[in-house]
Each structure stands twice: as C-alpha cells, then as structure tokens.
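Before the break, one more example. Copy the sequence into your notebook; we will annotate it together after we see the structure.
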Amino acid sequence: MNIRRFGILAAATAVMLVLAIVATVRTTPPARIIGDREPAFPKLVERINDVGAIEIKTRKHHFTIKGEGDQWGIVEKKNYRVPFAKVRDFVREAAELRLVEGKTRQKDRYGRLEVDEPEGEKSEARQFTVYAKNGEILAQGYIGRRKYFLYADGRAGTYVRRGGDQQAWLAEGEVNLGRTAPQWLDRLVFEFPVAEVRRYLITHPDGAKVAGQRNEPRGKVSLDNVPEGRRFRTDNEADRLALVVEKFEFEDIFPAPHIEWTGERHIAEYETFDGVIITFEVKTFPKPENASVSAEPPRFGRVKASLAADLPADKRAEAQKRVDEINAKVKDWEYKLEELDGLRTTKTMEDMLEPERQS
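Here is what the structure looks like once it is written out:
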C-alpha cells in the first residue's frame, strides 16, 4: 500500500471514529434529573406520608403489611413485627419510579417482563397495592423484572404496569419488594455469643443423647461418650452445634398452635455461662416430593427459656430478666427452622464422625 492510499484510509477511519463518538454521545441517556419524568405512581408521591397498609400478592403468597409510625406488622402473622425501615424503603422506592419508555400492551407478552397477573401457573409477577390510612388506594400495580444498566453509569430500571392499565413500562429506579412474608419480618429472635454456651444436650426420640460442654468461656467444646478410635469429620464438629443460639433466625413463623405436636420429637437444650437455658422442641416432617436429595426435611420448633438451677444468687436477677424477655417473645409462636438450625438440633453422634474403617 503506497503512502497516498494509506493517508486516505487513515483519514476515512478518523472521520468514522468521530461520527461514532458523536452518535454515542447523542444516544447515551442523560444523567437523571429529579422531576424530569412522569412518576409511575403520582398519588403516592403526593401523599407519601399518608400510607397505612401495603398488600402484596404473588403466585404463592398473599399478605398485608399494616401499621402507623414506626410500628408495622403482617396481619396474617398476627401482626408480627416488620421493621419500619423496610416499609419506608419500599414506599420511597415505589414513589421514585419514573416512566422512561412504553413497552408492550399485549397480555401474552406481560410474562416476559413479569408484569402479568400473579395467578398464572408460572407467573413471577409481584402485585402490590398501597393504601392510605383511610383505606383509599394510593398506588396499585405490578413490579416486574429488573433492567440492569439502564443508564451508562450502571443505574438500573424496573419493568412495571399500573393497575387497570394495559400499558407496560420501563421505569427508572429499583424496588426491593419481598415476595414472602418472612422477607419483610424481623426474623432475629435472640442471640448469644456462641463462645458463652456452657453446655448443650440433644435428646433424640429413641433416647440417644449428644452432650457437649465447655470448661470455660471461649474454650473448645468436648463431647461425652465418643466411640473409642473414632474421629470427627472436622476439628470443630462439636463447636458447631452451639451456633443455633448465636443468632437464632427463623425461616418462617406461625401463631401457635400451628402443627400437631404428637409423635416423635427432638429436645435440644443450650445453657450459657450466664445461667440462661434455651430449649428447642423440634418436630421433623417428611421431605416434599420435589425436594433435592441433599435438602434437609422441614423442621418446626417451639422455644422456651429457663434459669439454670445452680446459678449463684447474685446472678439470678439479671439472668431472670433475660429469660422473661425471651419467653415473652416466643411463647405464642411456632417456628419453621432454617435448614442448618434444624440439622444442628437433631444431629446424632454418628453424623459428626468419620465413617468407621472396615478391618
């Protein structure tokens, strides 16, 4: 290629590059300016401080969050506490949605955007209604799939459809809307430093026991009656069982009575060096047919707190206060246990040991 041809080609390439840059600048969405787009739910914007209830409906779940000020709860969960921050964030995020682009009006395409009616067999839509304190509807619609990287700076958008409107929209903004009641609830029931667990005792339906204890806070847990010549699967097998009370959070919660408590049950007891005893009564149910092979069966628990009998007199008042606080919180409830807690409260000695070597 001679110098003249090379120069012409270089000049043409430079022109094309400039045109491409200009086109990119022209087509890149501008940075967000407050108020530059129509609010998806204008009445909610106007009366954002007048919210009294939020109704959520999905294919599998239907519940209502209701309250005032910083006191909120789920009606179907006997008004069990919902942190005000979760209500505040959802209402603010819904109010901040701004319509960017009209999408489909065809019902058979709603499902792709997850703004269809949640009754459908495969629907992933989340329908919501926000009510004022007097019961008036402030916002109603469907929160659909998230649109990542709506803008060049990485901000996302959300597909939405307003109640009674055939038009689906791409909106600027994101909404964190929990699909299930537990995703809204304050799931932390109580917590103890795991290194402060003095002892635990798991009693199985057949009478077999797994007993562990520490001689001092932060010491290593030792187990009673470990078969001679057997080794643990890991160095901290025994310590792990105490993690149940470190931060007890439920998978779901139900007003008692919820399940039938007859038949076989496990009893798991945990005592702290401060003299507080936490007792779990655990019932195991068969695994659902569609559960994976590795999944644990569903387990439900009832919980109570008590005082250690040998606690010195000068420590009893403080420990009793903690016991009373826990019992006031747990006495009317039954918990679906998280998988690991269900496993730890029902573990056998054999579960913690390496397979026995065949001679």
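Residues 59 and 123 are 6 Å apart (CA to CA). The mean pLDDT is 89. Try to locate both features in your own notes.
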